[in-house]
Amino acid sequence: MCKVAIIGGGAAGMMAAVAAAAAGHQVRIYEKNEKLGKKLYITGKGRCNLTNACETEELFEGIVHNGKFLYSSFYAFTSQDMMAWMEENGCPVKVERGNRVFPVSDRSSDVIRAFSKKLEKLGVKVCLHSEVESIRAEDGRITGLVLKKGKTFAAADRVVVATGGISYPATGSTGDGFEFAKRLGHTVTKLTPALVPFEVRELAVVQALQGLSLRNVQVRVLRGKKVLYEDFGEMLFTHFGVSGPVILSASSYVADFLEKGELTLCVDLKPALEREQLDKRILRDFEKKKNRQYKNALDELLPSKLIPVVTERSRIPAEKAVHEITREERRQLADVLKDFRLTLTGMRGYGEAIITRGGVSVKEIHPATMESRLVKGLYFAGEVLDLDGVTGGFNLQIAWSTGFLAGRSAGLAESDFQTHA
Q1: Domains in the chain, ordered, with CATH?
Q2: Which of 18, 94, 130, 304 is deepest in the core (most CB within 10 A)?
């Protein structure tokens, strides 16, 4: 039996503790907060989109950076394994649109409760209000860690760093793991907010639309004429710009470009209709409402909040009688509906970012074990690593898979290390 210390009681840390304890080792979780899984409580608007039910090969398509590194992790503990684990541990799950997986109860607290019960059953010691100050190593091998309170030294044979990133700092994600890694000789790549809303130049437009959610739209982000990102899904207008799943995913792909200058967001409000089909649809609506004013004839085509904005952008007089609208003016309306444009000027900060992009360089981690290539007995899991995915449960699956592999590997006998590293 060896002593395994897990720093961080979030998704990756709890899974690492379960895997290490299942191998029969003495495991302790050191969590600085007053409870486990504080960030998990707020994920998916409190519902916890805990994974994506797609096939394992498809998981890699949802990873933005360093997907190849996750091959061993994703196959060691798949999204199907995660769903089965939740079911076996008293938290039934359901699959929704886009293969998103949620607890049947729609309560993130049930996910955390399942882990808490399992940790207790396995004899894992959970140390709350226990902030780690530093990790100790001698001759390239882990010896333990030092707690901030009382500068207490806790001996450990293996340490798993699962401290998260620096997004949602109110949940305790303050970048501790990056500092631990640097002090032990690891490289930390550039850190930026990821899965984060955009700010736009046209504030009057988005403020008029604030709170409006559009479910089935196609978005493209352009730099000049070059398409940097394109996808279909749900978006939301806010007082400062745009948000929603399809927008958040875009942020991970275009962040570097946006640092160099403004980008253009193009929204197709009617992606299911080709231009000719859309014109026929507009004609049908106009025929039914031919004696109305233009501004009162779009209620079947658009949500009420969008009508004044689209009316203005189409350059058709709002009071014009529908039967007087020309073919050219219908084309102008179609142009707005198929290419509604906003100027992206920047992204929001870590306080609104779902995850952190960047982290401990995966070049310095064994992908088959999650052990450091620089320090024996040191493992990393979850958001602290330079790994990130789009919305839809992919980032939590990174946490479950890397946490499982790190915990299981930390439980290997010394003689097994050369085989698995």
Answers
A1: 3-193+351-420 (3.50.50.60), 197-348 (1.10.8.50)
A2: 18
